[in-house]
Amino acid sequence: MKKRHVQQTFLSIALLGCISMAGLGGCSPKAETAENQTTATPSTEDQAAKGESFGKLKDGTETRLFTLTNKNNLKATFTNYGGRLVSLLVPDKNGKMVDVVVGMPDAAAYESATEPYFGATIGRFGNRIAKGKFTLEGKEYSLPINNAPNTLHGGTKGFQYVLWEAQQPNDQTLVLTYLSKDMEEGFPGNLTTKVTYTLTNDNELKMEYEATTDKATVVNLTNHAFFNLNGEGSGDILGHVLQVNADAYTPVDATLIPTGKIEPVANTPFDFRKPTAIGARINAQNEQLKNGKGYDHNFVLNQNQGTGLNKAATVVGDKSGIVMEVSTQEPGLQFYSGNFMQSKNTFKGGSKDDFRTAFCLETQYFPDAPNQPSFPSTVLKPGETYKTSSVYKFTVQQ
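Request: output the structure for the sequence above.
Response:
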């Protein structure tokens, strides 16, 4: 199994410093009196780097929206509230720009949504931890139970509800940083986190995650974008054709915690090694599909022999012809088929979050890894750097 890439901490700090400086503009000395003070009109580039207003939270906190564009006119928008991917415009087979990410109209709508994770950067620990407990270096840690009887996606106030520091050094890059303090949501260590989102000229949305800690802890970062490649509001995703580069998956119990086994996908509804419609077997009589109310499972990705990204999955929108290819350094991929969408939230385009109208492909370490010694380790220690990348590339199929 591919191990976490570890570097010396000072390299991460140096890189963070370089990127931060690239996003900082010059500052004029403060004027001594109001009469002597002059205000320069910010350039369009300066304004873009600071983003635009995305509304206020309940406590009055102002949030920002940042737009990334590439030379092919693809456009991605993010908010610093939860580090969320709000929209992603890519061309379909007819050249029409389609928003393939469902999202909310403003920060307040995200804050009040019954689904906490739309588009969010997830941490400290993506996916579930059994009964909200794990033991590290002989000490047991207890976490908030927010998905009874387990902890899901970092606890009650995971990274989806924090305000990230944002720097936009250029039109195609957004750098988000956040310090998660020692024992925040029950996790040990001051965790310094950096996520870099880049929209490349190869029509890729690149996600790079880094973290360092001053105390041994567990880390599993990902992004929880909800996709519909036919476009937000276009109906369910059951006709999308999915291929997953995995010979095995981790079956779960009735609370969606892995049993500890790694089982082959062959001769099960989880065999997506050949392109298959998401809805082809989703209602099959199968205990695992019953447990997840559909697909909500971790796939054990086949690893290549190189040191780069592994192919994880390919999805094709059956109406749009949009193709999304997912590559990652992570050992696992959570495929979620929107089973808990309940028409309770209104998206930015006016449609509801109806049952199975979006899907997620979350690159990750395995769920409940802190309690499963046979799974790849998610432990991060002082002096190490958690560093991993995932790429979502968009093309069209005529």
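The chain is about 10% helix and 35% strand.
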